[in-house]
Amino acid sequence: MLTSSSSSSSQTLRIGIVGFGTFGQFLAKTMIKQGHSLSATSRSDYSDICLQMGIHFYRDVSDFLAADIDVILLCTSILSLSEVVGSMPLASLKRPTLFVDVLSVKEHPRELLLRELPLHSDILCTHPMFGPVTGKNGWKGLTFMYDKVRIRNEDICSSFIQIFSSEGCKMVQMTCEEHDKAAAKSQFITHTIGRTLAEMDIQSTPIDTKGFQELVKLKETMVGNSFDLFSGLYVYNRFARQELENLERALQKVKETLVEKKKEEQGQEKI
């Protein structure tokens, strides 16, 4: 379901980012530009980068959680989310806080956060359908999916969503289940075909068609993503296995059709 901005007004937020890798830094730049106050914590030491960006970096997660934060943004990998959330000393939270994830699968973080977080914590599951490469020239027209899983403080939630709508994103509100069904047919299949082309080691030739150039570009883009992301799309999206089987059957069907056509042509030649 397409929606417009949740609110025409927004407030300056205090946002804490957990996992300050490439994607966390990418989101932080726009949030800072909009005037929000940011802090971060991560298993790796990003204190120098945070200093350059004007972000307070917490080495101790307890101190991070005890800070006066409106939103905790989880920018970990799919595979590490359970470990990261499970190791958080959530008793350090001083007040109700909105937790937001940005993973490429949605049912997994939804179930995990509902199970692990205090009942007074709000939960917003999101998926920005873009990254540092596709969003390097701005977010206008790029898709932002979200599901208000458990929201009591509508002002904080709306203000966070406004970060993306104000940048011109196409705002799509859908359930986590609807997202994973659609993503298995689109994002997972795209990654799978790109990885398959990489296994075939396809390379540019002097006589490339436009279509083949697009395939080479797809391969290079997909292998540029971490394998953890690809495997996470399979392991934690319950609809991915069926789509992989559908792809295998489709390839087999195409092969059988070609073999049958060859037999027909050879039979015609003998007549």
TrEMBL record:
Keyword Oxidoreductase among record annotations: yes
GO terms for biological process, alphabetical: tyrosine biosynthetic process
Gene Ontology molecular function: arogenate dehydrogenase (NADP+) activity; NAD+ binding; prephenate dehydrogenase (NAD+) activity; prephenate dehydrogenase (NADP+) activity
Claim: Oxidoreductase is one of the keywords in the record: yes
SUPFAM superfamilies: 6-phosphogluconate dehydrogenase C-terminal domain-like, NAD(P)-binding Rossmann-fold domains
Domain of life: Eukaryota
Residues annotated as transmembrane: none
Coiled-coil portions: 237-264
Pfam families: PDH_N, TYRAAT1_C
Protein name stated in the entry: Arogenate dehydrogenase
Originating organism: Vigna unguiculata (Cowpea)
